[in-house]
Amino acid sequence: MDNLPWTGGNKLLQKGYFCYLKINYKMMNIEELKRIASQVRRDIIRQTNGSKSGHPGGSLGCADFLVALYFGVLRHKSAEFSMTGKGEDVFYLSNGHISPLWYSVLARSGYFDIKELATFRKIDSRLQGHPATHEGLPGIRVASGSLGQGMSVAIGTALSKKLDKDDHLVYCLCGDGEMEEGQVWEAVMYAGAKKVDNIIVTIDVNHQQIDGSIEDVMPYGDLKPKFESFGWKVLHADGNKMEDISATLQKAAGLCGKQQPVVILMNTVMGQGVDFMMHTHKWHGVAPNDEQMKTALSQLEETLGDY
Amino acid sequence: MSLLNYTEKKDTRSGFGAGLSELGRSNPNVVALCADLTGSLKMDAFEKEFPERFFQIGIAEANMMGIAAGLAIGGKIPFTGTFANFSTGRVYDQIRQSIAYSDKNVKICASHAGITLGEDGATHQILEDIGMMRMLPGMVVINPCDYNQTKAATIAIAAHHGPVYLRFGRPVVPVFTPADQKFVIGKAITFREGSDVSIFATGHLLWKSLEAAEILAQKGIQAEIINIHTIKPLDQEAVLRSVRKTGCAVSAEEHQVFGGLGDAIAQTIIRNYPSPQEYVGINDSFGESGTPEQLMKKYGLEAENIVMAAEKVLLRKKAEMSTS
After folding, report:
1. What is the ipTM of this complex?
2. Of A14, A34, B165, B270, which sees the most CB atoms within 10 A?
């Protein structure tokens, strides 16, 4: 137990630590995951403030999920990134605009130095506005940002794992606004029809998109029966309760290999953790100014040390 | 001596199908994806021989491109198959983000390219695909001329790491390149040497250019016929070597005159050895229904059109020489 990140102490997390974690819910320390999430939220606020651009709202909303995944469930080798992901679980971020979250989680789990977070969206950086492989940032396997494409890519890697008889899993996060893209439903159809049962898709259900609430912009109705009619196993989670999202991810992994793809419909609050950013789409793609950053950081404990 | 010898007539898509099956046997990482056109793409032999490595995606080309990218990440060498229209225009953004920008080792194999698709009409006759694909950084663009060259190109692209667009067609056309050829990406092939005019041809227009060279020879004009099977990366050295000799060029392609082979040649010439050039291609219009032969004639892609372009460019060359 001593060599696991959440018991290894803050210094290890600051430096970045080799993680190869077995799925074992009992080993997870929820309090430690919450502490990591608090630091990750600080990183999100500071990155977007530093570049005066980016998407803090969705990033804050999904912070608990991505911390629960990377520090609790994902079996991955952060210190020796391999593009193929053979012998590892693989994660894809389809809603690429929440890149400051992913960058923070990748850095905090050891893919690259946390100091690099200061380069987010700046010239000559590997931390592009939307995630990219082009600059060689470890942890990223495909570019995303143009919405609707990640689930297809995830299915491709899941099929590759089946061919290789590699029993590791492929995870993918999508936004609920992203469900308006047609390609998503091509992917949902394929995975259900072809029984791609080594994939776990999570939908960030925050009911917000750029022009307003989904209910106002494109009220597409309940996702659950849609996924179920295509043959998916549907789970629900509260994405801002660490206990719940951790347990649901664990449960989802246990449901793999049963002839059905798995989707987690994860309720979150956009802007979660910063009171003035919550319950609005206003902070979808707007960075906090210095004053707003100060207020936001006062609500988020510095647990692992800022970059 | 006439170069117009051929053994038989075959469709280039069958060359792709044969090459794919051969690859399946020699390379266990090769996988194939098709969007409900297995028979049209001649991928049925691969499907039958390697069912576990064949993925029927259904009529969902965007998803196919994404799945191909994901398979490539896992270390596979995916070959996607559908019509050229649905391989490019329909899925441009998927190719751009998930494949080209992400440097994925996906081979986009496109049949029924150009106007010779025929009776299905303009909805399916894409004439802009070379332009779209060659604008993407890192994309290799290949348009082989006959069955044998298509088969050889299919096998060759598996050994190239990176995204490739391989374009071929539906009609049966003469098979005139060697069955045992080695295909070298980016290396132009001189089919006929000549000193008066350089004719750069790709795909089905190579045979038409060889026919044109015979007609021109009868008129005392010696045309150099160069096969540009790889439009990107372009063999600039071969292009310039020929144009420095002849002083003028004709490009010939089954594609819009905008953005295709002709523009690739023009960009090379204008930067290095400015010379008159004429284009043979589709002149800023959509196609229509008809037989391939009728359409090639109506849209100006016959040997006689290449002859006219050569004569026109020769007049321009002479005019420039007399004023300089």
Report:
1. 0.96
2. B165
